[in-house]
Write a structure and sequence with these properties.
By secondary structure, the chain is of the alpha+beta class. Helix content is 56%, strand content 11%. It has 11 helices and 6 strands. Strands 4-5-3-6 form a 4-stranded antiparallel β-sheet, with helices on one face. It has a two-stranded antiparallel ribbon with strand order 1-2. Helix 4 packs antiparallel against helix 6 and helix 10 (290-300) runs antiparallel to helix 11. The radius of gyration is 33 Å and the shape is elongated.
Length: 366
């Protein structure tokens, strides 16, 4: 009896020891980020989607960056070939350098247009770097409340983060201003040295003539052209510290893709700055179930609602008009929220010139 009891105890102990321990955390379902048509997107799936999106935007930015380098190479190669021909043969007219200057100016316009596309992709990349990935490295994970709104708005209503003039000025300062200076010095040298040095300034001005245009006019046009380039290059400095530049995100020197709303540009910067701001909308909802619709908007969109008494002039029935300010990324959620409570509601969404107050631009400028 003693041996059988001992064997039975060993068997029970073996059964207990081989039973896996239950982890209550494994049984808990993963919280969904959002639900769409019965599909629940998990946090892991959301992160995977963001990773693939980040890689796609990186690829886009790289492609347009390569196009920028290609345009600069065109300008350098054409300038080198032009100067080789102009100084290699004494009988070549100096107007060849002027033609090359106009061609390089055209390359600059092409590169400025490409740079705006590059800024659009790099803005999205930088936004995810600073407010999504960087926030993960600093626990607890608290991303900026504006990053998802800015990214979604850029996807729904894409617009260039910088103006044509700023892109023109930035590429001019980076590469093309030095090419233009070389062309200017080469033009003066070509007139002065070939076929021989002029005896006086009148002879120099005579040589500077191009067809029916006298030399004095050509010199004045040259001064006006380079003065214009200088004004654009200087006027666009720090006008908008775009995300494509290698600049920090936080601190006094924080780089943002768009200037603060309260920042007032003056002088030439006010002329060259882009006229754009975040799209803001005003929704009017005419419904007979105002209480349920307003509660749904308050809970789902977290937006304030103001009720106005109204009357349908065709039916003569009393109606309530709900007024709600929102952004472009919230329009779909508003339609869904209203349709759940009152499918017969009448919704009007119109653009607003400016919305001031909580959740939008500050009412008082600091």
């Amino acid at each position: 009896m003693t041996v059988k009891s001992a064997a039975k105890k060993k068997t029970v102990k073996a059964k207990v020891s081989t039973k896996p321990k239950e982890n209550p955390k494994q049984d808990e379902p993963e919280e969904s980020v959002w639900t769409y048509r019965g599909y629940h997107l998990k946090t892991s799936e959301f992160t995977t989607a963001m990773v693939h999106f980040f890689r796609a935007e990186i690829q886009r930015a790289n492609v347009w960056r390569q196009r920028l380098d290609t345009t600069t190479n065109w300008a350098v190669v054409v300038t080198g070939a032009t100067l080789s021909i102009a100084f290699g043969q004494s009988n070549v007219h100096h107007s060849l350098i002027l033609i090359n200057t106009l061609l390089v100016l055209w390359f600059l316009f092409i590169e400025a247009r490409r740079y705006r596309y590059y800024e659009l992709w790099s803005y999205r990349v930088r936004l995810m770097e600073t407010d999504f990935y960087a926030a993960m490295l600093v626990p607890p994970f608290h991303p900026s409340p504006e990053w998802a709104e800015n990214l979604a708005e850029s996807l729904l209503t894409p617009s260039f983060p910088i103006s044509v003039w700023e892109a023109f000025g930035r590429r001019l300062r980076r590469n093309y201003y030095w090419i233009f200076l070389i062309l200017c010095a080469s033009w003066v040298a070509k007139i002065w040295l070939f076929p021989a040095s002029p005896a006086n300034m009148d002879e120099f001005l005579t040589r500077a003539a191009v067809g029916p245009l006298p030399g004095q006019i050509m010199i004045i046009l040259g001064l006006v052209f380079y003065t214009f380039l200088t004004l654009v290059a200087v006027g666009t400095i720090n006008m908008m510290r775009a995300s494509g530049e290698v600049l920090p995100r936080f601190g006094d020197e924080a780089a943002t893709s768009q200037p603060p709303d309260h920042e007032k540009l003056k002088g030439i910067r006010a002329i060259l700055a882009p006229r754009q701001r975040r799209r803001q909308l005003l929704a009017l909802i005419i419904t007979g179930n105002a209480e349920a619709v307003s509660n749904r908007i308050l809970s789902d969109l977290k937006r304030g609602v103001t009720a106005i008494d109204g009357k349908g002039m065709y039916t003569g029935a009393d109606r309530t008009v709900l007024m709600c300010a929102l952004t472009v990324t919230e329009v779909h959620n508003l339609k869904t929220a209203v349709a759940k409570e009152d499918p017969q509601a009448f919704v009007i969404v119109s653009p607003a010139q400016e919305i001031l107050g909580r959740g939008f631009n500050p009412l008082e400028e600091k």
